[in-house]
Amino acid sequence: MAERRPPKVIVTKIGFDGHDRGSRVVAAYLRDAGMEVVYTPPWQEIGAVVKLATEEDADVIGVSSLATDHLLVPKLMDALRAAGLEDVQVIVGGIVPPKDERLLLEAGVARVFHPGVALGEIAEAVRMLTRDRRSLLEGTL
Amino acid sequence: MNAPVTPVERIRGGDRRALARAITAVENATQEGAAIRAALAPYLGRAQVTGVTGPPGAGKSTLVNALVKELVARGRKVAVIAVDPSSPVSGGAVLGDRVRMAEMQGHEAVFIRSLAARGHLGGLSRTAAQVVELLDGAGFDDVLVETVGAGQSEVEIAKVAAHRLVVCPPGLGDDVQAIKAGILEIADAFVVNKADLPDATRTERELRAMLALRQNAAPEALPPVLKTVATTGDGVAALADWLAARALQHGRPAPAVPHTAPPASGPAALLARLIARDAYARHLGLELVEAGEGTATVSMRVRPEHINFWDSCHGGAIFSLADTALGLACNSYGSVAALIDSHMTFSVAVKAGERLTARAEEISRSRKLGVYRMEVRRDDGVLVASLTGTVYRTGKPLPNEASTGPAA
Amino acid sequence: MNKPVHKPVVASALEQAERRWQEAFDASPGAARRAANRSGIELKPLYTPRDWSGAHYLETLGYPGEYPNTRGIYPSMHRGRSWSQRQLIGLGVPEDYNARLRELLAHGASAISLIPCNSVFRGYDADEVPPELLGTCGTVVNTVDDMMRALADVPIDRVSCALNDPSPFTLLALLLVVAKRRGVAWTKITGTSNQSDCISHFVANHMFFRLALQGARRVLVDHIAFCNARVPGWNPLSVVGQHMQQAGATPAEAMAFTLASAIQYAEDCQARGMAPDSFLPRFTFFFDISVSFFEEIAKFRAGRRIWAKLARERFGAKDPKAWRFKFHGQTSGVDLTRQQPLNNIARVAVQAMAGIFGGLQSLHTDSYDEVLSVPTAEAARIAVATQNVLREEAQLTDVIDPLGGSYYLETLTDQMEEKIESIIARIDAAGGMYRAVEQGLVQRMIGDSALAFQKRVESGEQTVVGVNAYQVEEDAGAYPVLEYPARERIDAQLARLADYKAQRANAPAQKALDGLARAAQGSDNIMAQVVAAAEAGATHGEICAVLRRELGFGQPLAIV
């Protein structure tokens, strides 16, 4: 497939926490890095994120978590698989304790980013994951 | 059933992911995208395509959200294309318009897709018209296209949408000129949103005055100025009524619809108003398809809540559909008529998801009595049920229509 | 403001000396380096009497406890009575919270706080939400029964309680019911409704109850009126700059937005017929304290002066108590790093000192591990110890406003004041804070500042130790993190809630909820009905559901 479309990334927060500084900064940075960013306010429900990813044909979903909302990410992964979106790459950023990080990676999360990570590193990962997804999907339409 | 399912079959079958990926293919101008477009061609032309444009901050997205809500409540399947500007420097974009449609984006009858303009001028993305085709071909009843709204170069919407709404914030005041000529000329209707703000009435008046001046036409030939408060939904039902009436008059969207005001009189307009006021019809998701003196065609998509205990559409729902067509047909003369006797024959069972259309025809009509025949058919033409009904004609004018009905 | 007034002969001597120094400085290494603080104020390498001479001392600084209160709101400040040590705590089920509370009280905490579970913040009972999240970052409190257990053996007539309790203030309602059951008069209940500032929730951290902004606005005014009349020792309003600064606003912006919000709340109270001298003395404020030491001190001193002027001149308050800018400070979590987390102990100490020199009335010090997880008990103890060291070992409290009169700090206070006032003027021009946030103006300013700061970190212009400088290899797994409450405890809490709902008398609860709905539809005081509903046995989630239905459901308005 032609690579004309820049990476399309959903930047979202699921669960109850509302602290959205991280997600806004990341969204703005990815935009400035030339990507198409679908930004949602906090408190998204998992079903809504799946529908969003479906309709937007997103390459990557970035979930920001400050409190403990990352504990819902395994449920998101299940819901994506159930909707046939196993190709969509999920990354998580925020305060994620090490043991939870293992849990998320086992659930299929591609990368976990912690506070202090360079935004450029996130952008690079998104580009790479987008390439992975698109080559995975090549010719399957 | 072992043959591979084609993308078009999946899209026609309601597979949202296949549709979304086809949109990406069209955005990227791939061969796959072109092939899907070609294969969808036979299915085009059914959707009502409405463009929503206007200056930034006018409340386009909140209005679209409110309109989607109203259309879904009327049983329609609605797709929205929200076009956001891309950064001229990085090429990146924050696709934020759908955020303001949060209320409706989770609804199963709604499909929203954000497109980045990618440097394309004209208020749309380069491929927006092709994406509209895909959504039409996928079977949506309405496609709403929200433009960038970055300024004055929004005339492209005229080529894509049959119905063009220009949204104006109140308080344009003397700056009503900000809505420049190019946009004024494409408008089929103006919507003064945020009509609860103090300047709304003045804006409405100034718009009307300017339109009269610019177009040098009689007031009734000018595009109407509608007022809404998208955040509360005030005026949105009237806007949907106006769209329905206009769609009825224009049949289906054509690229260059001549500029005409929607009908304010005549049986079509009357029946559009009646069904819009009919809470039961809205509850069932009935829509008026065609109307004339003594005739009306009403359709309905069979929804899960219409299904009975053995997985078919409940006969009562089918009767309601036919009865509504009858009620509209016999009231099309502007005086009250009421059903006094009816007989119905059911031919085949109907499953959820199918669309049924009931057409009422007048067999005879005297001063006191009218006899009507209704046929209910599936989209493939199969007769589902037929019905005859006798109505008593009271001769009294329809309530709330005394001054606007055709009799007046 | 403080134009130097010098006799010519002095000036010339000063000028000569300054010229000599300037030449020497220019020849020194690093002379070309420019510096600016987070609010964008350019910093000179040296300040002298030519920058600030103290000529207008009485008008601009005055004495502590006197208008314009720049040096402090009380005559004795920390020399007389130290700040309250108020640690935010909240975790697990009410019993867990109660145990931690008693431990903190034993370790010298003089006031308590309650952070509810995020499900409570969002207006739901425990049985309405995904169970994974329950009690992982705050305490689950839904019923009077929960509040009784949370406050078991806590002398609520003697300790001041800070409740993180946004509109519609159900935690306060539950506390008042507990007081009634224990025979404690409401006049003896003291404390603060933290998180009562609905505007800050709307723009910055979206933790409000999903009440539409204008609905929350009404509930807040009802709440202020109710507390002023019935719980006179309670501070019903805490205007919060902390959320906005944590979300990325510069210190000057955060102070300006906070004051602009306070102006709106005061105008709403006035419009309700309340007299400024009756409600302004119960206004309190809550700020973030970043590690930008002098900037924070100047922010607080400037804010105190502006508020005194606003209260006296804009609102015409005559009671000096109404001019007092009472504030709680919390050290900034955004400054803390996951890398080398023990370094955070040093950062918190610097932040806390800035707050103390800034004249705060109560202080929360963050635990060093807040960027790793919800704080552990050990880390929370160190945070309390930090306050004890500063208060009792370091002799910071012996002299009032000890940095006052510094050429630099006074110049900076004036510059911050000017900057803050210009932002307030911008908000005023937009039609006030409610209009400004509905238009997204404030969110955009905050988002821009957040991204600009992050880009300075990425470019290395702003050093963050352990992140973009002085990095070391380390294993994040080496630090202990808080265990989430055991599933059985959460299950037990859910069972208790089910029992509570099954066993209570439903009719009075329903009747009270109907009364609440009627109040919301009409013009009766909503807070009085919230308390009545809590007393009749209604749960937090039930009360919030009624108000969501009647006053509208709020969506966060977030803008990139």
If you had to describe this structure to a student in words, what would you say it looks like?
The complex is a heterotrimer of chains A (141), B (408) and C (560). A five-stranded parallel β-sheet of chain A has the order 2-1-3-4-5, sandwiched between helices. Chain A has helices at 21-32, 46-56, 73-82, 98-106, 119-137, and strands at 8-12, 36-39, 60-65, 89-94, 111-113. Chain A is α/β, with parallel strands linked by helices. In chain A, 43% of the residues lie in helices and 17% in strands. Chain A is globular. Chain B has helices at 7-12, 16-27, 31-40, 60-73, 102-105, 128-137, 157-160, 181-186, 200-215, 236-250, 267-277, 279-284, 315-330; strands at residues 48-53, 78-84, 93-95, 110-116, 142-146, 163-168, 189-192, 225-227, 286-292, 295-301, 335-346, 355-365, 369-378, 383-397. In chain B, strands 4-2-5-1-6-7-8 form a seven-stranded parallel β-sheet, with helices on both faces. In chain B, helix 2 runs antiparallel to helix 6, helix 4 (60-73) packs across helix 10 and helix 10 (236-250) packs antiparallel against helix 11 (267-277). The longest helix of chain B is centred in the middle third of the chain and has 16 residues, at 200-215. Chain C is α/β, with parallel strands linked by helices and 560 residues long. Chain C has one domain (57-473): TIM Barrel, CATH 3.20.20. Chain C has a five-stranded parallel β-sheet with strand order 3-11-10-9-8. In chain C, helix 11 packs parallel to helix 13, helix 11 (251-271) packs across helix 16 and helix 20 packs antiparallel against helix 21 (526-535). The radius of gyration of chain C is 24 Å and the shape is globular. Chain C starts with 7 loop residues before the first helix and ends in a 9-residue tail after the last helix. The interface between A and C is large, with 34 and 44 residues. Strand 2 of chain A pairs parallel with strand 3 of chain B, so a sheet runs across the interface.
